[in-house]
Every structure is written in structure tokens, then in C-alpha cells.
Design goal:
There is one protein chain. By secondary structure, the protein is an alpha+beta fold. The chain folds into three domains: 7-114, Acyl-CoA dehydrogenase/oxidase, N-terminal domain (Butyryl-Coa Dehydrogenase, subunit A, domain 1, Orthogonal Bundle), CATH 1.10.540.10; 120-226, Beta Barrel (Butyryl-CoA Dehydrogenase, subunit A, domain 2), CATH 2.40.110; 229-386, Up-down Bundle (Butyryl-CoA Dehydrogenase, subunit A, domain 3). The chain has helices at 7-24, 28-34, 39-51, 70-80, 103-114, 228-264, 276-304, 309-338, 348-355, 366-380, 383-386; strands at residues 120-123, 139-143, 146-157, 164-171, 178-184, 190-194, 206-217, 221-222, 266-267, 270-271. Strands 1, 2, 3, 4, 5, 6, 7 and 8 form an eight-stranded mixed sheet that branches. The protein has a two-stranded antiparallel sheet with strand order 9-10. Helix 7 (276-304) runs antiparallel to helix 8 and helix 8 runs antiparallel to helix 9 (348-355). Bound molecules: flavin-adenine dinucleotide. Flavin-adenine dinucleotide binds at residues 122-125, 130-131, 155-157, 198, 206, 358, 361-365, 367-368, 371.
């Protein structure tokens, strides 16, 4: 078994680290103070994304993407996760499900998204349908050569940067006909209700939208009627793996900041790292990062080897759960090691502390990941997590 990164994977990790340091990090405090990344800065980042070769990192070359392996994507996303204020979202990752579109949809939506000319956002969650995505009430009915969509969607991330939306709705109100639609932004009959403020000051907004008989051309159905749940599942799995990468990167940065601080900061006549309580914190932080990174790279390697979709689904839940909770613990300890300075917004560990909280909530809460894992163990045995391969 070869656990070495290839020269290409190492080069991509260094390039992504440089991109995060040089392009995204200078925007952290601006985003934090402004509550969102200003439009002009966002536009400048988009240009840089293309120039540095990070447009559509999750898509095939024939779809306008970079044709990276999953491990290559992982080493890049881990580095992007180091930045605060969700600035990794300045590097758009067009939803993976777009590859299931017709050739016309790929030409019109996916290729321009990878090339930085378009950007999608995803609208699944509703006021009454969060963890229970089966409770979705949004409807779609066919009227001549248009689908007519109605319903309310919440927490639509990056709506303010998007010019089309992947909307999940039930055809004729039937959950068995859950489907996904490509809806232009703006569209007549769709109203942006508001974009509330959240704990983090994020790169982009999270919008609430209302569809009131919004008319969408008939060729904007992604896949077939009834494919909605499976497409959403694929989107969740990809997003969970991405969260694992970002939370790992965030934990590593926080640990580095805390380690440097512990060496410099002197109290009672000695560096605080000489106090065993601080040293042990650093040891525990390093141990948890070590475990998370080993899990993540293993799963990325399995995906590249062609692991089956069900296995990836099962493992993505464990990864998302472990990495997001690990980052919460590690960053909390980093704040503690920095003392009062760790509580200052100008310090990255304070911003990471706020940023990382949502990773235990979105794309399936920690409780839902445990529900999924428990279901997998019951159905397929513990081996899905305890076996190798
Ligand atoms: C900042 C942000 C951005 C988001 N971006 C998007 C987006 O772009 N697109 C999108 O569609 N959605 C998005 N979401 C929605 C997100 O995926 C949901 O918030 C999440 O799935 C949880 O749903 P909920 O908030 O309705 O919580 P609820 O489902 O109401 O859960 C409340 C609590 O009950 C627990 N719970 C629920 N069911 C169970 C169960 N079976 N067993 C045990 N505990 C349970 C939960 O774990 C949680 O602790 C975003 C959310 C946030 C906060």
C-alpha cells in the first residue's frame, strides 16, 4: 500500500496553500467587518480562481472542469479550509449533480459554471423540511411547455452570487416524484424574501426565497421526474466530503497559530508551552488532526479506486461527523491557549471558532450523520466502518 502523495498532489497542495494565503487571506478581516465579501473583491477572486487553475475543480475536463482526481480535490480543499469567513466559497464548486444534465444543460449551465461565467446555488431546505428532506412541500406542475413552481426555500447559500438555482420540488405535490429543476435567477414569480445574518460573517449570503407560480421552461428538469432524492443525496455526499476537507484545514491552521503562540507567550517567567496543561492540549489537538486526516485521505483514495456509491455515502457521514466535531474541539482549545487574544475578532482562531460551528449543522446535522451511520451498521454490519477496503 502506497500512502505517499504523488508529485502532482504535492504541487496542487502547495498551489492551493499559496492561493489561500495570497488571494483569500487578505480578504478575511474585510469580510468579517463587512459581514460579507464585497462584490468588487468577489469579482477579483473569480478572475484569480481561473488564472490559478481552480475553476470547476470537481468536474471533468470535457465539462469545463480540471479533471482532478478526488484526492487531488481533497488536498486543494483542505488548504482552502484554512481561510476564515468561508472564503473557500469564493472558489465555486458547481454542484456535482450538474454532470447528470443533458448535453444542452451541460453546455448552458455546467461548462460556464466551471469557467466562472455562471454560478449555481442549491435550494432544498424549507421551513418545515430541514433534516427531514422528505417533508418538502414545494411543488411543480406541468403547464404546456413550462414547469410551474411554488414553495418557500430557506438557507440558500450563495444566492447573491448565483444566476441559477437547483430547486428540489415534488411534481404534482407527490413526494415519490421529487425532482430537481434548473431555475434562472432572476425568474418571474420568484421573490428574494431576505438574507438574514448568521453567527459567521460568510463570504456569501444565505437567502430565503419564495416561488409563486414561477414558470420554468420544460427542458430545465435535471434528470427524470422522481430523481430528486437521489440527486440531493449525491449533492449531500459531495458537500459532506468537502466539509471534512475544510474543517481539517481550519483545525490545522488553528493548531499552528496556538503552537506558535504557546512558544512565544511567556507567563510566570517561562513560555506557556512549558506548562503541561498547555502541552497536553497541543498533543490532543495534533492527535485528533492526525486521525481526521488519515480518515479523509483514505476515503479520497477509495473514491479514486472506484468504491461503490453506497460505501462512499456511509463513509462520508462518518467523515463529516468526525472532522466537524474534531475541528470544534481543536479550535476551542486554540482559543483557550491564546487566552484573551483568542477572543479577539482580529485573531483567526476567534473567527474560525464562529465559522466552524455551522459544520455540525449544515448538510445534515451531527445527529443525522449518526442516524445514517447507525442505519448502515444495522443494514450492512459494522464492517462498513471497521473493515479495510
Ligand atoms: C448557514 C447555513 C447554510 C445552509 N445552506 C443551505 C443551502 O445552501 N441549501 C439548502 O438546501 N440548505 C441549506 N442549509 C440548511 C441545512 O442543511 C439545515 O439547516 C440542516 O439540514 C438542518 O435542518 P434544520 O435547520 O431545519 O434543523 P431541524 O431538522 O429542525 O433539526 C433541529 C434539531 O433536531 C435534530 N433532529 C432532527 N431530526 C432528528 C432525528 N431523526 N434524530 C435525532 N435528532 C434529530 C437535529 O439534529 C437538530 O439538532 C443551510 C443551513 C445553514 C445554517
Amino acid at each position: 500500500m502506497d500512502l505517499d502523495l504523488s508529485p502532482r498532489e504535492k504541487e496542487l497542495a502547495i498551489r492551493a496553500r499559496d492561493f489561500a494565503d495570497q488571494v483569500l487571506q487578505p480578504l478575511e478581516l474585510i469580510t468579517d467587518e463587512n459581514g460579507i465579501l464585497p462584490d468588487t473583491d468577489y469579482a477579483a477572486v473569480q478572475k484569480q480562481v481561473q488564472e490559478w487553475g481552480f475553476g470547476g475543480i470537481n468536474h471533468a475536463k470535457e465539462h469545463g472542469g480540471q479533471g482532478f482526481t478526488f484526492l487531488e480535490q481533497t488536498v486543494i480543499e483542505e488548504q482552502l479550509g484554512r481561510v476564515t469567513n468561508g472564503l473557500w466559497s469564493g472558489v465555486p464548486r458547481p454542484a456535482i449533480v450538474l454532470k447528470h444534465g443533458t448535453q444542452a444543460q451541460i453546455d448552458e449551465f455546467l461548462i460556464p459554471s466551471c469557467q466562472g461565467e455562471r454560478r449555481p446555488c442549491v435550494a432544498i431546505t424549507e421551513p418545515e423540511a430541514g433534516s427531514d428532506a422528505g417533508a418538502i412541500k414545494a411543488t411543480a406542475r406541468l403547464d404546456g411547455d413550462h414547469w410551474v413552481l411554488s414553495g418557500v426555500k430557506w438557507f440558500v447559500t450563495s444566492f447573491n452570487r448565483s444566476n441559477f438555482i437547483l430547486v428540489q420540488a415534488n411534481v404534482d405535490g407527490d413526494p415519490a416524484k421529487s425532482s430537481m429543476f434548473l431555475v434562472d435567477n432572476p425568474t418571474e414569480g420568484m421573490t428574494h424574501l431576505r438574507s438574514p445574518k448568521f453567527m459567521h460573517s460568510f463570504c456569501n449570503d444565505h437567502a430565503e426565497l419564495e416561488f409563486n407560480d414561477a414558470r420554468v421552461p420544460v427542458d430545465r428538469l435535471l434528470g427524470k421526474v422522481g430523481d430528486g432524492f437521489e440527486l440531493t443525496k449525491d449533492w449531500f455526499v459531495e458537500a459532506r466530503l468537502q466539509i471534512a476537507c475544510h474543517t481539517l484545514g481550519a483545525a490545522i491552521r488553528a493548531a499552528e497559530v496556538a503552537n506558535d503562540f504557546a512558544a512565544e507567550r511567556r507567563q510566570f517567567g517561562t513560555a506557556i508551552r512549558d506548562f503541561q496543561s498547555i502541552e497536553f492540549k497541543l498533543a490532543d489537538m495534533a492527535m485528533q488532526i492526525f486521525a481526521a486526516k488519515s480518515m479523509l485521505y483514505r476515503v479520497a483514495w477509495e473514491i479514486d479506486k472506484g468504491a461503490d456509491r453506497k460505501q462512499i455515502h456511509a463513509r462520508a457521514s462518518a467523515l463529516k461527523l468526525y472532522c466537524s466535531e474534531m475541528a470544534g474541539r481543536v479550535i476551542d482549545e486554540a482559543v483557550q491557549i491564546l487566552g484573551g487574544r483568542g477572543y479577539m475578532r482580529e485573531n483567526p482562531v476567534e473567527r474560525l471558532y464562529r465559522d466552524i460551528r455551522v459544520d455540525r449543522i449544515w448538510e445534515g446535522t451531527s445527529e443525522i450523520q449518526r442516524v445514517i451511520m447507525a442505519g448502515q451498521i444495522k443494514k450492512r454490519g459494522l464492517g462498513v466502518y471497521t473493515d479495510w477496503g
